[in-house]
Amino acid sequence: MTTIDYSFDRPISATQLQPLLQQTSWAKGRSIDGIQTMLEGTAIVLGAWEDDRLIGFARAITDSTYRALIDDVVIDTPKRGQGIGSSLMHQLVKRLTEMEVEEVFLRCGDQVVPFYQRLGFETSDGITMDLGQD
Fold this sequence. Notes:
- By secondary structure, the chain is of the alpha+beta class.
- The protein has one domain (4-118): Gcn5-related N-acetyltransferase (GNAT) (Aminopeptidase).
- The chain has helices at residues 14-21, 32-40, 84-98, 113-118, and strands at residues 4-7, 44-50, 53-62, 67-75, 103-106.
- A five-stranded mixed beta sheet has the order 1-2-3-4-5.
- Helix 1 (14-21) packs across helix 2 (32-40).
- The chain is globular and about 40 Å long.
- It starts with a strand and ends in a 16-residue tail after the last helix.
- The mean pLDDT is 94.
């Protein structure tokens, strides 16, 4: 059985992350330069590693006090359904809880709502709005 290593500290390069993001509908068009800028500007990133291969990723955008947005949770397609996403989320939420962030939220598609509900997230009554830029 292969061991999965989870790390907030192990560096993640844009070239390691791009193949995972290309497996998604929301991030498949991201460039190496854009991913690098995103990684440099995100304080909390968590990787799941199988040996030297990045197989899972999640990040949190936060002010470390009031709000944290969990974003870009992605697992390599052949590795899905093995608990890696749940482990990433548990560790990320634990880190934010230890920081005593007041509100942790995320935005997701309807198809993954049950996954996040199993982890304790609830749908909110608020309305999500964006600038409509695709």
